[in-house]
Write a structure and sequence with these properties.
Largest sheet: none
Oligomer: single chain
Radius of gyration: 15 Å
Shape: globular
Low-confidence stretches: none
Number of strands: 0
Order of helices and strands: HHHHH
Helix content: over 70%
Number of helices: 5
Number of domains: 1
Length: about 120
């Protein structure tokens, strides 16, 4: 599999997981892949945009880490990055007195990730 084909496959899998987490159909947008956000991520609530934006930034981070390699960043690597950043995000929001905003934005993603872990026998 080519590097580009592998990246496309991983990007599609991330999009499917976000679709399932938010129970909404997200349209693939090249500007989201390049810039992280276009201002319109096809979500109804402003707090829902942050997880999509951060997920795109973390995906770009992985792509940049592997850009000279023949290896393709995997979906599991992306999930690990999201999991690691969630703890810090929760602390940041709670310390700013915005714990409810964090819960509203990230609850669908966290429920979905727990479901993935249970499906694989992890949780």
């Amino acid at each position: 599999m080519s590097y580009v084909g592998g990246r496309r496959k991983q990007r599609e899998r991330r999009l499917v997981e976000l679709d399932e987490a938010f129970d909404k159909q997200l349209k693939p947008d090249p500007l989201v892949a390049i810039l992280g956000s276009t201002g319109d991520t096809n979500l109804n609530y402003g707090s829902d945009k942050w997880p999509v934006f951060l997920g795109a930034v973390l995906a770009k981070k992985l792509i940049l880490r592997f850009w000279k390699s023949d290896a393709v960043p995997t979906f599991e690597m992306w999930l690990r990055e999201v999991g690691e950043i969630l703890y810090l995000e929760k602390l940041r929001f709670k310390n700013a007195g915005r714990g409810r905003v964090f819960d509203k934005a990230w609850a669908p993603v966290m429920r979905h990730l727990r479901g993935l872990g249970e499906d694989e026998g992890v949780g």
